C-alpha cells in the first residue's frame, strides 16, 4: 500500500474507531465491518485488500477486548488469526488483547497458556529495539495469568 493511501486508510479506521468506542459489541462489529467494506471498494489490489482486512480486525479486537461479549471477541480473534500479521510486533500486540481478555475473565485454560507461550517465543525472536517493550508486556501478562491460577 502506498504511503499516502496507507495514511488515508489509517485515518478512516481511526475515525470509525472513535465513533464506536461506546457502542455495543454488535454495533462495533457492524460499523467496523461497514468501514472495511467501504475501504475495500476503493482498494487497488489484493495486497491492499488484505491489509485493510487486517487493520479492521486489529481495530475490532482492540475495542472488543474490554467487552463481556466472549462470542464476538473470540470470533474477531479467529478472524485475526486467519488473516495473519504483518510483523511479530503486530502479532505480539494482538496477543496482548487476548491475554488481557483471559486475565480479566479469570480464565486459566490451555489456550491462554498457549497464547502466553507464543508471546514469549515472539519476544525472544524480536530485534532488540522492540524486545524490551514486549518483554515487559510478557512479564505483566504472565503475572496476571499466574494470579488467576492461584
Task: Please render the helix and strand layout as text.
Elements: H1 3-20, H2 25-41, H3 46-64, H4 70-83, H5 88-104, H6 110-125, H7 128-149
Helix pairs in contact: 1-2, 1-3, 2-3, 3-4, 5-6, 5-7, 6-7
What does this structure look like?
The protein is an all-alpha fold. The protein has seven helices and no strands. α6 (110-125) runs antiparallel to α7 (128-149). The protein is globular and about 50 Å long. The chain starts with a helix and ends with a helix.
Question: Number of helical runs?
Answer: 7
Largest sheet, if any? none
The fraction of residues in strands falls at under 5%
Net shape: globular
Secondary-structure element pattern, one letter each: HHHHHHH
Query: Could you tell me the number of beta strands?
Result: 0
Rg from alpha-carbon coordinates: 16 Å
Low-confidence stretches: none
Amino acid at each position: 500500500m502506498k504511503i499516502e493511501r496507507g495514511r488515508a486508510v489509517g485515518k478512516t479506521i481511526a475515525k470509525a474507531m472513535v465513533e464506536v468506542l461506546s457502542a455495543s459489541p454488535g454495533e462495533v462489529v457492524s460499523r467496523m465491518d461497514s468501514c472495511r467494506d467501504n475501504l475495500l471498494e476503493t482498494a487497488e489490489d489484493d495486497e491492499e485488500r488484505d491489509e485493510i482486512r487486517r487493520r479492521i480486525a486489529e481495530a475490532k479486537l482492540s475495542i472488543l477486548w474490554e467487552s463481556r461479549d466472549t462470542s464476538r471477541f473470540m470470533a474477531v480473534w479467529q478472524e485475526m488469526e486467519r488473516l495473519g500479521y504483518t510483523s511479530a510486533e503486530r502479532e505480539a500486540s494482538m496477543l496482548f488483547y487476548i491475554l488481557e481478555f483471559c486475565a480479566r475473565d479469570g480464565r486459566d485454560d490451555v489456550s491462554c497458556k498457549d497464547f502466553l507461550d507464543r508471546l514469549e517465543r515472539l519476544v525472544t525472536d524480536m530485534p532488540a529495539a522492540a524486545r524490551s517493550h514486549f518483554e515487559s508486556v510478557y512479564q505483566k501478562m504472565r503475572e496476571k495469568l499466574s494470579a488467576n491460577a492461584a
